């Protein structure tokens, strides 16, 4: 079992908090590097959120009922 699998198991049900933590960490790195690597940090944040199961975005609305 990989480290990422263990993290996913621990974070199950708390994807929104994990996403917030990823955002906070990325903002910290941006602050320390004075925004020099902001595009790379943003890419890393999105990929990490995908791996952890939360995109940090609202889920798509359900499809309309069939008539």
From TrEMBL:
Pro residues bias locations: 58-67
Pfam families: MT0933_antitox (PF14013)
Superkingdom assignment: Bacteria
InterPro entries for this protein: Antitoxin_Rv0909/MT0933
Segments for region (Disordered): 1-67
Biased composition (Basic and acidic residues): 1-30
Annotated protein name in UniProt: Kanamycin biosynthetic protein
Taxon lineage: Bacteria, Bacillati, Actinomycetota, Actinomycetes, Kitasatosporales
């Amino acid at each position: 079992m990989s480290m990422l699998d263990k993290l996913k198991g621990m974070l199950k049900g708390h994807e929104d908090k994990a996403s917030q933590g990823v955002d906070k960490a990325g903002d910290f790195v941006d602050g320390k590097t004075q925004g020099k690597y902001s595009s790379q940090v943003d890419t890393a944040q999105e990929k990490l959120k995908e791996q952890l199961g939360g995109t940090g975005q609202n889920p798509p609305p359900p499809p309309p009922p069939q008539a």
